[in-house]
Amino acid sequence: MPLLTMREAISQALWEEMERDERVFILGEEVGVWGGTYAVTKGFYDHFGPERVRDTPIAEAVIVGAANGAAMAGLKPVAELMTINFAFLAMDQIVNHSAKLRSMFGGQFTVPVVIRAVGGGGRQLGATHSQTPDVVFAHFPGLKVVAPGTPHDAKGLLKAAIRSEDPVIFVEHATLYHTRGEVPEGEFLESIGTSKVQRRGRDVTLVTYSKMLQLSMQAAEVLAQEHIEVEIVDLRTLRPLDMAPVIDSFKRTNRAVIVEEGWRSFGVGAEVASRIYEEAFDYVDAPIQRVGQKEVPLPYNRTLEQLALPQVEDIVRAVREVC
Amino acid sequence: MNREQLLRIYHTMFLIRRLEEESATLYQQGKIGGFLHLYIGQEALGTGVISARLEKDRVITAYRDHGIAIACGMEAKVMMAELLGKATGCSKGKGGSMHLADVSLNFWGGHAIVGAHLPLAAGMALADKYRGSDAVTICFFGEGATNIGYFHEALNLSMVWQLPVLWVCENNQYGMGTAVERASAVTEIRKKAEGFGMPNARVDGMNVMEVHEAGQSALGHVRSKGPFLLEAVTYRYRGHSMGDPERYRQREEVERWQREDPIGLLRRHLLENAQIQPAELETEDSRVEVEVREAIQFAEASPEPEAEALFADVYAEDALVAEVR
């Protein structure tokens, strides 16, 4: 199987879907002539032309708003937000429109929009450009929130997102674009709303997603040397949340650690832990642990920034705590 | 316009007026919940512009949407059922007064966040242009919406991308209780279009014939050349919504505008210039009364939505419905 970077996998998914379906088009800041600020859409403008690869003004509210409108009228827009932090400028469109146009009008409207947003910390971009606010979007019924952690899943899930009839927030972690992984040749789709076991182990269930999947895999290697076998469940989609593989694993290991890059307060860990307690309380052998970002706006200074972000050692420590 | 068209316009405007009056009563009786924004006084505006559209032209508006819905051809009973939150309403009782829509009539809502539907209009127009259609999207909004960022982002984009949108500003003088001159640096709203290099016009929004003509010419411009802003000067007789104490204006001001009532103006025109007999108008009036009475009866007799409807239509892909929590 060929090894692709995350960037190549995402780019392939977009390219293939645009070739397959003329209704699919891209809009966003610098997606065209520039080739995408993260080079995901490099070469698209020359191949698909300015009608299908549309450079927009720096105006997030109308980028997402126009994408919503075009989706209502039957197209399949893929809007790119240069960073997920700018999604806050389009929050009303995402929360009050993408998520609600269908149910609020009794099912009359369909809004098959994909909003690609680049998130995550670790690049010394300061507090406003480094956030991991994925859970904010997952709060709202009507949205689907997808955040892949491998090139394989990124390709399969983005293709599924573009084919979905529902609005999808597709979160790409900025520091994963160079991550390589095996991606099958040819056509394949991954199912939105399904978690996936990325590593088998009998001692503890580690629940994570996106960038933290990579760190968790490294932590599992360290722990394996201590004869602690970690089972890793990658959520891949935050809404709708597929808990079945988590509960299934937890009933065998009776221990869980949840790892997310964002702040722990009201986060993925809080949600997943609650559901484990609700659905498998009798199987709990140790208090569930959560790993997440320190509760501060991310600083610019590299040392301080890394101190705030979850590290492999934090994950290792949390696992030891429950084992 | 010929006699038949004029009578149809009269019928629509009077139907809107009477439905709104009855809605106010139903609200006071507690049968309509939430907010209720009445279109009384502005009937000529929506009716005039929409009477100039082609079937393929889309219409989208803000939350003061009852009159626009009726002008687009929505049946009175379907609208009334939505106001009463019934399963037979156009949005199955999930939207209410502010969220009327009927895609089959090319009426795309009824949107309750000020300014937010302007980008939606731009996107729908983009879809039509993308497919090579010459359909126009007609987007109504109040003068209050021209002070929010959405207005500027959407109008700018419509010019940059040459999107077929007719922007129609319903300048009814007040954004809630704040007079236009207290909220907008420019009170002649059409001038704001100049900043985007967009052609524009201002029309008397109380005169349905003038609105119709201005709408027709603006639609022609959009279809052949590009976006256009039409400002129509109008006035709402009632408060912003029900329960508005109206401390921000004098009774005399309201009465001054009522002397130029759009329906009264049209009646005079029909009788004096269009050879329409008083008896014909009376016939039209009684048809409207029957329609209004039947609409209320239908809405009151309609069933409430079933409890199962709670989880319906949240996602297009039904498999997910069980997991919406």
Describe this structure in words.
The complex is a heterodimer of chains A (323) and B (325). Chain A has helices spanning 6-20, 44-48, 60-72, 91-98, 101-104, 134-138, 151-163, 211-225, 244-253, 268-280, 302-308, 312-322, and strands at 3-5, 24-28, 53-55, 76-81, 114-119, 144-146, 168-173, 180-182, 196-199, 204-208, 230-234, 237-239, 256-263, 289-293. Chain A is of the alpha/beta class. In chain A, α7 (151-163) links the parallel β6 and β7 (168-173). In chain A, the strands form 3 sheets. Chain A has a 7-stranded mixed sheet with strand order 3-2-4-5-7-6-12, with helices on both faces. A 5-stranded mixed sheet of chain A has the order 9-11-10-13-14, sandwiched between helices. Chain A folds into 2 domains: 3-182, Thiamin diphosphate (ThDP)-binding fold, Pyr/PP domains (Rossmann fold, 3-Layer(aba) Sandwich), CATH 3.40.50.970; 196-322, Rossmann fold (3-Layer(aba) Sandwich), CATH 3.40.50. In chain B, 44% of the residues lie in helices and 11% in strands. Chain B is globular. In chain B, the strands form 2 sheets. A 6-stranded parallel sheet of chain B has the order 2-1-3-4-8-7, sandwiched between helices. In chain B, strands 5-6 form a two-stranded antiparallel ribbon. Chain B has helices at 3-28, 43-50, 66-71, 76-83, 117-130, 149-160, 180-183, 190-194, 208-224, 251-258, 262-273, 278-301; strands at residues 58-61, 107-110, 137-142, 165-171, 174-175, 178-179, 200-204, 228-233. Classes of the chains: A alpha/beta (323), B alpha/beta (325). Chains A and B meet through α3, α4 and α5 of A and β2, α5 and α6 of B.
